[in-house]
Amino acid sequence: MKESKIFLIGFMCSGKSSLASKLSRALRWRHVDTDREIEKLTGKAIAQIFKQEGEAFFRQLELNVLSEIAKHEKIVVSTGGGLGANKEALKIMLSSGFVVWLKIDFETFISRCFQTNRPLLSLSKDELRELMIKRNETYKLAHLTLDASKTLNELASELLHCLDGVCNVNELGSN
Ligand code: S3P
């Protein structure tokens, strides 16, 4: 396997952190989560940053944090849902590692995410659906797409096989 960094991208509640944690144990690499890094750096919860500093501040911060994280090797990175949809951030990930999109459908997202405390959940269902459709256009540029409705074991096994060269990776922009 030539990759030394794996980035998991996708919409909220697609299971990026759980899969990253499982993979990092299997590979004996470090699991880094961009939101947790931001919380460590600022000493504030994500919801608090959104409330006190605003979303634009958070977006810049997550881009800065990602740039720092991407300098490391042997890491599995779970990213906040906005990062994989940010073209600049995606460029950093695509050029420095293997990028995996955990694709979730809207109904699964609602059922998994509904009762969590995420700032963007203050949007209406229609707005969230629009946001997902828009973001999917960028997420799909990932090297690999996995179906987030599968179990954690299935996802980890598919991804590990893929890293061993036993899978079809996406052709950029065509999946
Ligand atoms: C966000 C997703 C969250 C977190 C923040 C913004 C987004 O992370 O970064 O609330 O814009 O989709 P998760 O994808 O882990 O929920």
**Termini separation:** 23 Å
Number of domains: 1
Strand order of the largest sheet: 2-3-1-4-5
Describe the global form.
Answer: globular
Uncertain ranges: none
Quickly give the CATH architecture. Answer: 3-Layer(aba) Sandwich
Fold and architecture overview:
This protein has 175 residues and is an alpha/beta fold. The chain has a single domain, classed as Rossmann fold (3-Layer(aba) Sandwich). Helix content is 51%, strand content 13%. It contains eight helices and five strands; from the N terminus they run βαβαααβαβααβα. Helix 1 crosses helix 8, helix 2 crosses helix 4 and helix 3 crosses helix 4. The longest helix has 15 residues. The chain starts with a strand and ends in a 12-residue tail after the last helix. The protein binds shikimate-3-phosphate (S3P). Shikimate-3-phosphate (S3P) binds next to loops.
Q: Main traits of this protein?
A:
8 helices; alpha/beta; 175 residues; 5-stranded parallel beta sheet; Rossmann fold; binds shikimate-3-phosphate
Brief rundown of the structure:
Helix content is 51%, strand content 13%. With 175 residues, it is of the alpha/beta class.
Draw up the topology in text.
Elements: E1 5-9, H1 16-27, E2 30-33, H2 34-42, H3 46-53, H4 55-69, E3 75-78, H5 87-96, E4 98-103, H6 106-113, H7 125-139, E5 144-147, H8 152-163
Bound molecules: shikimate-3-phosphate.
